[in-house]
Amino acid sequence: MRIDLHAHSTASDGTETPAELVLGAAAAGLDVVALTDHDTVGGYAEAIAAAPRGLTVVPGMELSCRLDGIGMHLLAYLFDPEEPALARERELVRDDRTPRAQAMIDKLRALGVDVTWEQVSRIAAGGSVGRPHIATALVELGVVPTVSDAFTPDWLADGGRAYAEKHELDPFDAIRLVKAAGGVTVLAHPAAVKRGRCVPEAAIADLAAAGLDGIEVDHMDHDADTRSRLRALAGELDLLVTGSSDYHGSRKTCRLGDYTTDPEVYGEITRRATGAFPVPGTGGAAGA
What we know:
By secondary structure, the protein is an alpha/beta fold. The protein is 36% helix and 15% strand.
């Protein structure tokens, strides 16, 4: 089995609709793909309806968190999307994205960049607005050559000149909420240093003691030495090890299935979850 547990659609900051994403996953030879849009479950229905036979969709989400001033992301899988406490926090994070984006646009304009809310809104195309949409606007304006080049201290990185904070969850609270909703939690790209500061390994140990299920080890932002170190840490802390593409469509260079999760780990995730279940494709919009 080929299993990719981290992918984004236009429901947040990907460039493909949920339907296009699942069809692309099947075309890429995947057996399982997780839809993990940022702070939203808005793409679930479309992805499940369009999933072709032979592909299983794992409902998930990537929650925005912050610990001691360091931004971090928590992947949540197979939780009950209707559970009230988690839904309420998810909506708080999501709803704060628009004023935060507007604040970053104001900062960019003060720096002489002719970016507008209308441009960013067009790029987001109804999705949950995030920094990648603003980064894409900077690429369109010729300010930076690629989306990744916008995530620097000069522009949109944490603490950068155009950075603005948003409502983010304490990761310990996030783990508690996801578990109460029957879900499973995995710390996304925990050592992606080129994105900014990362939480120390001691903090990961504390999160593991609080119920964190796993860490995303095999990821495009981790080099071979980092993956080896994280794999050893996971062993010490009895954490599951996942691998994923973190696919965003054309917004990033990674492809679906570039990194994958071991089937035994996937099986353990599904065994631990009680809030929802993976959904086998039924033919969907693709027919057969």
